[in-house]
Design goal:
Largest sheet: 9 strands, mixed
Mean pLDDT: 87
Strand order of the largest sheet: 16-15-17-18-23-22-21-19-20
Shape: extended
CATH superfamily of the largest domain: Class I glutamine amidotransferase (GATase) domain
CATH architecture of the largest domain: 3-Layer(aba) Sandwich
Strand content: 35-45%
Distance between the termini: 40 Å
Low-confidence stretches: none
Number of domains: 5
């Protein structure tokens, strides 16, 4: 309290005492014990009232110490168990978190990571993937604007995510604590196997195999690919102390239609510590025909090359580029892509009225819109000669096929002529257009279906920039190419729409996300959000059955079947309200990526430490790690003086006390006949 407050309280005591004395002693004729009690009650009431008016404040000062965070991230993936380091990792973690000196200097944060990072103090080492990139990104967000050290207890073997070496903040030192046996063992390994998911009947499909050798002696290994009991390919491979890797390029025959499963293996006469990484299963779906998509254009434009690459990312598609006057027969064409049509396209439009080939019309600044109005009536164009840039806006209610928003709002604008575009009839809009963030309510990407013929419209040029932006956002063309493939798939399909549409792969690798998507449409072919979808999954060998509910997402239902063992599975998706069902099958290939390693990745761990000015330690150097952390003078606690001001007495209780004192005084005066 301040000096002024204390003086006011003393003055209040004098005033309260003076008034009480004046009323009950100076003026009173009697000075009995009752008067003393009444004077005391009046004194307390007046003093309490004055204290309430003064409201004295008490200031408390407290010293708050903020410690530097110390993030300890523990690798919880199954590779730790495979390297027989699970007990050692737990021991190292406990030694760090229980160290009194570290506890005094740092605020210890405990995490575990496999595919993602999350807080934890207990570990089961059952993670299916290792993503050190997720550790880097999440720790940046958790301890934002803070300089802090990170200890990572790991073998350094990452199986998913971006290269982690340069993903950690270079201002925050990283101290890898490397676990696992660093002794070099004799080991042959299929490091990577590349193959397309699809091949075409009676053709040959390429297989690229990367082999790796660990050892010091010259050795010869046998590599083979078998299907069932048949050896499809076999080669001898030589390794030495100077030749540690080998690359094989093989062509395998696609003699049978359907899903074909193969096993690649490498072996030698020498005994290996880990033979699990000598085998890799893979599968190829052999199809008996290939969809041909014709891109027809009278001009050269980057859109055409980008569209060709995007479509042909699906090996089932083949794109041919033709001029308007070069195409005659449409029977072998699955989809016609008409790029910026003009009057030169009249013959193609006329022939297609008889052939009935589904079309994908892309407009731009060179399009003849008067001609386009004459050739179709799904969209009506009233365009000027002025150019305009159109941004995209995703329409989540679109339901012709399942698709996600892949970041359309971040894509560069498409260029088209300025004007009004109105829909006519049954047109579904996937993307609407905006001009400088003002919605036009006009379509940008739309689909129409009339008498079994399907047409798609992309109303603007420069979509090649969309594909490049998607790659910038995702470090891959995959999301954009899948989006393009769904458009082509919709146009290439001539079958009538089904009420239950299920999307799934024919095979998955163990450890991958096994997601099955489904859409249910009502009688008006509108997406039914109230549908109740379940899936029954049965192992084809053991006959073990599991049931799951499909969860509703943005524009589809989905289920994640992660955790299923390798094998063949049959499944059935059913809509419970109508009993509509879909049956299918898939196969999970036996492949545990976390069992591919025999040694920790010491080189990568040392690179990470060097990049962040930290230091790498081995599992027997934990004492040196603790000493390094304690001696580093960068990490100091911050002391703050926290000043809090609170009332001396809560005003509510003070008010209750005043009322109680005055009430008691009144009753005493009443009882003694003094009123």
């Amino acid at each position: 309290m301040t000096t002024n407050t204390i003086l006011l309280l003393l003055l209040s005591l004098v005033i309260a005492g003076g008034l009480s004395y004046f009323q009950y002693f100076f003026k009173a004729k009697s000075k009995s014990n009752v008067m003393v009690l009444l004077a005391f009650l009046r004194f307390l009431a007046i003093f309490a009232l004055l204290v309430l008016l003064i409201n004295p404040i008490v200031t408390k000062n407290a010293l708050e110490v903020t410690k530097t965070p110390l993030a300890i991230a523990v690798d919880n993936s199954s590779s730790i168990t495979a390297l027989k380091s699970d007990k050692k990792v737990t021991e190292l973690y406990r030694e760090l978190v229980s160290n009194p000196a570290l506890q005094e200097k740092f605020e210890i944060q405990s995490y575990q990571f496999d595919t993602e990072l999350k807080p934890s103090t207990a570990f089961d080492f059952k993670g299916k993937q290792t993503n050190l990139d997720a550790v880097a990104q999440n720790l940046k967000s958790i301890n934002r604007n803070t300089v802090f050290p990170t200890v990572i207890i790991t073998d350094g073997n990452q199986t998913t995510g971006n290269d982690y070496v340069y993903r950690f903040d270079p201002l925050n030192k990283v101290y890898p604590l490397i676990v696992g046996d660093t002794t070099t063992f004799f080991d042959l390994k299929i490091n990577q196997l590349n193959v397309n998911k699809y091949a075409f009947h009676k053709n040959k499909f390429p297989v690229e195999v990367f082999l790796q050798y660990a050892g010091d002696k010259n050795t010869t290994a046998d590599f083979s690919i078998v299907q069932g009991n048949s050896v499809i390919a076999k080669e001898k491979v030589s390794f030495s102390s100077s030749k540690k890797t080998a690359t094989l390029n093989l062509l395998l025959p696609a003699d049978k239609v359907g899903l074909q499963v193969f096993k690649a293996s490498i072996s030698s006469n020498a005994k290996e510590k880990n033979s699990y990484n000598n085998i890799k299963n893979f599968a190829v779906e052999v199809i008996d025909q290939k969809s041909v998509i014709a891109i027809v254009s009278a001009i050269n434009h980057p859109d055409i090359a980008a569209l060709k690459r995007s479509i042909e990312s699906n090996a089932q598609r083949k794109v041919i580029l033709v001029k308007p006057n070069e195409i005659n027969l449409l029977q072998d064409i699955s989809v016609l892509v008409l790029y910026q049509p003009t009057a030169a396209f009249k013959t193609i439009f006329d022939n297609n009225k008889l052939a009935g080939t589904n079309t994908f019309i892309i407009t731009g600044t060179n399009t003849d819109f008067n001609f386009l109005n004459q050739q179709q009536n799904n969209l009506i164009f009233k365009m000027s000669n002025q150019r305009e840039d159109y941004l995209s806006e995703f329409q989540s209610q679109f339901n012709l096929f399942a698709t996600d928003n892949i970041g359309f709002e971040n894509f560069p604008p498409l260029q088209n002529l300025f004007g009004t575009i109105t829909t006519n009839g049954n047109v579904s809009v996937l993307l609407s257009s905006k001009i400088r963030n003002v919605s036009t309510n006009a379509p940008l990407l739309a689909f129409a279906e009339n008498q079994g013929k399907r047409t798609a419209f992309l109303l603007g040029e420069n979509s090649w920039k969309w594909r490049m932006q998607s790659h910038i956002d995702n470090q891959s063309f995959e999301k954009y190419d899948i989006f393009t493939d769904k458009i082509i798939q919709y146009l290439a399909s001539a079958t009538s729409r089904k009420s239950l549409v299920v999307t799934h792969e024919s095979f998955y690798n163990s450890g991958e996300a096994i997601v099955i998507n489904a859409q249910y449409f009502n009688k008006n072919y509108e997406f039914d959000e109230k549908a109740r979808l379940t899936i029954n999954v049965t192992n084809a060998v053991t006959k073990q059955t599991k049931n799951y509910d499909l969860l509703k997402g943005n524009n589809s239902f989905s289920v994640n079947l992660d955790g299923l063992a390798a094998g063949k599975y049959n499944f059935s998706v059913k809509e419970l309200n109508t009993n509509t069902s879909y049956t299918g099958h898939f196969e999970i290939l036996d492949f545990d990526i976390e069992k591919q390693f025999v040694n920790p990745d010491v080189l990568k761990m040392k690179q990470l430490a060097l990049q962040t000015n930290g230091k790498a330690f081995f599992q027997n150097q934990v004492a040196e790690l603790i000493k390094t952390l304690l001696e580093n003078k960068e990490y100091k606690s911050i002391e703050k003086n926290i000043s809090t001001k609170t009332p001396l007495i809560d005003w509510v209780w003070l008010l209750i006390l005043i009322v109680a004192l005055l009430t008691t005084e009144w009753f005493v005066r009443k009882y003694n006949g003094l009123l």
